[in-house]
Amino acid sequence: MADVMTRLDPDTRAAARGLSDLSIRNLFIIPTIAFLIIFNVFPLIYSLATAFTDYRASTSAESNWVGLANFRELLSDPNIWRNFTITAKYVIISVTGQVFVGFGLAMLLNRPIPLKGLITTLLLLPMMMSPAVVGLFWKLLYDPSFGIINYFLGLGKFEWLADPQMALYAVAIVDIWMWSPFVMLLSLAGLSAVPKHLYEAAEIDRAGPFYTFFRITLPLVAPILMIAIIFRTMEAFKTFDHAYILSTQPTTELIAIRLYKMAFLEWQTGMSSAFAYIVLIVVVAITNIYVKYLNKAKAR
Amino acid sequence: MAEVKTKGEVIFNRAAVIAVLIALVIMLTPIFWIAATAFKPRNLATTAPPTVFFEPTLSPFAKLFTKRSQLREPVEEATYEAAPWWEKLVFDGGEQVVRNKKTGEATSSGYGNRYLNSLIVSIISTFLAVSMGTITAYGFSRFRVPGEQDWLFFILSTRMLPPIVVAIPMFLMYRAVGLYDTHIGLIILYTAFNLSFAVWIMKGFIDEIPREYEEAALVDGYTRLQAFRKIVLPEALTGIAATAVFCFITAWNEYAFALMMTSRNAQTAPPYIPSQVGSGLSDWTVIASGAFLFLVPVAIFTFLLRNHLLRGMSFGAIRK
What we know:
The complex is a heterodimer of chains A (300) and B (320). With 300 residues, chain A is mostly helical. Chain A is 75% helix and 0% strand.
């Protein structure tokens, strides 16, 4: 029976067995793609149309076509540029911190450490938590009068969140706490992939630890570390949850927070759609870098 | 680097162990503090210096689930004795549970409902995302799809948008079609959010299942769908489980959409807990108990999932 089936031409065979491969493929793929288009692409088209109007979702007033006015106003608004500067600063601080802490932890864990599996798992806990709940709790930890951070560091009544200079660092520290484990995880994967014989060869050549690190370990881990950096940069750029809960200062107003306020507290729907588009263009640019490096790393 | 030989290396290794332990303590202290505060009596939550040793109480949990008012005068003996045990905990904290005047039932704080909303939305959206993701991944893995790489990139790219950017038009659309503040509305959003992830991870898992298994089944007279159900699905089960837990955690932790797309009826716990901080003197023990209960499922899943974490978090990106 099986022999007969395989010898028949594909169409007849499919007909004899129910659905053809082609229709199964379409049945399996098209709903997902359609779903994603409806819930991702369609809203973007919708908001593109809104971006050229003065629509406000809080009133029933007719919206007017204003052309490029929204974009012109946004791009000439120094406050928006300040939001971008703050975000850039925040991204640099938190990603740098995560790379140092995460890669450092990975280097330590790459040695023969007892209970390594358990320790690694425990270190992963922060990144599995809800950023909003985490942000809330750090508010208690940062409290100037009864927070444990000031107590353990002996800082007295140091203001973490109310000090305009410090607040952005305080928000970044939470991000570093949450996401260093991610960098650690990727670095560990990278470190375990470094061929052992290279170290053996270095040992035979009596290479020092610095030489081994900078000439063998780092170059071989670099591609995967780069992926971690780009990934975290993209994510840090979008930061909203914990930052929104922690920040009370204009100095911590990241782009996502400004966008949220503009859209849902000030109800400048048209203007915020235009702003969202500017942000989108920046994200697409970052994403392109990401994909470029991703392909490079994959091709290796 | 695995073997330790010289004396210098032994010392170096001990130093590494100590450094790891210090790092572990630092990383876990905030979580420990959440857990500890959730079991403190109110007066010990905000002390300087911080209280580390205390007699644990369940009163924050009793308070978390009920609406309360401050006690003006001590409770009468008879009332105290007649109250259920959890209400006694509240009395001891100097508060009293607000009861419905007609039915005499304790008034709920809303946390229970929010927690339930979180469960409903996370479980259903996870189920949808994983089932759709699995079959789509199978489609991409086994059949020739024109422009396959482009489609896969499109699927991945939907995840790269900042949620706030999509939230504005979604809010307008949801309000127009009546999905605002509904469970279905959030479920759809979280499914869309997790679907791209599920497709990518599942494709990685399914690619690893040898095609020969199904081909053998096809030769034996199975249809394509039967082969998928009886051969591929069981083989992909660990992958499906790992993906499901990831999708669940993402949906469970989501804050931004829940904040913007819900108000009372369908709101989940992440926007609710912060809203209880308020501007006055907030009861941190109650907030901590809410946060603690919310973190428990994630902590459990992290342990169940530990071996799959790398693969999932790296998004299938670093897979060769």
